[in-house]
What we know:
Blueprint: E1 2-4, E2 7-13, E3 21-27, E4 33-36, H1 43-55, E5 63-67, H2 73-76, H3 79-86, E6 89-93, H4 94-97, H5 100-105, H6 108-120, H7 125-132, E7 149-151, E8 156-158, E9 163-168, E10 177-181, E11 186-190, H8 211-223, E12 229-232, H9 241-262, H10 270-275, H11 293-312, E13 316-321, E14 324-329
Parallel strand pairs: 4-5, 5-6, 6-7, 11-12
Antiparallel strand pairs: 1-2, 2-3, 3-4, 8-9, 9-10, 10-11, 13-14
Amino acid sequence: MKIVSGVYQIKLPFPLDMPGHVNVYVVEGSKGNILVDSGWGGSEGLWAFREGLRENRLKFQDINWIVITHIHPDHYSLASKLKEFCGAEVAMHRVEAELINSRYKDFSGLLKEIEEELSKNGVPQSELSELKEASLWMEQFVSPDLPDVMLDDGDRLSNGSFEFEVLRTPGHSPGHICLYEPRKRWLFCGDHVLFETIPHVGLHPQSGDNPLRDYINSLKIVEALKIVFIFPGHGPVFNSLKLRAAEILYHHEQRERAIIKAMSGGLKTAYQIATEIPWRAEAGGVAFKDLTPWDRRLAVLETIAHLKLLTFEGEIGKIDQDGVSLYLAKD
Length: 331
């Protein structure tokens, strides 16, 4: 549907009858159209995208650029196929482009690194294989191609009618970008800020050394901008960026308190801590044991990210014992 003059939102479904959808946006311009993100790969996503264009009287061939905010499969998977249909150039931040091969083409090394990360953070052997392989089903939907255009923080993208500044916003993914249109005060933000859910930030082999610190820093930079409309990758378009940023920061403060409270019993691994705190607050709170394997993996990686930041800030201590990382609250 048309959100504001020149901007159309198309909702693309998740595959395999999973609930939810991904928002992609077509931004019309006098010199061509920009598509922000591409959604899941597969025939279902392609069909939904075609129908979205048709309903809004848009055409494949009018899309000149496909800008990917980050290479998670729900934002990147369909880019290669849409490039064929549109004849468009695909653009993303160079940090994201450098992760494509090890994430989607030759990923045996990445799987081994994930297994090692989970193991040293206390995931029991009985769960290790299930959590390590929890994301493999996604590979069938991804056609991993390198971008035509590498972007950097501060670059400009224009389609004749609108000019966007590329803002690198690491945290959810190390090369995540937002597109900022200062004249209109628009922000296309991928998964950096969501209205209904808290963006996942976990520490893993492709996250960067301290992703939660990166995320909080980049959230504060974006929060300082004068924004009228925020166009997220999931959920509704909204206009209360400062309020939502404050809510997200409050969530992370509450999560830190829950983690430190869980550590009151002495030395614990990230896995042990993750099992003792509530998850999915937006769903009313779900116990760790009731999460799917994929969500349990995300929970452990998010806990590790919090522990990394707390250690960096001197709030907790860490020791390595027999190849396992153990954490202790200092007070």
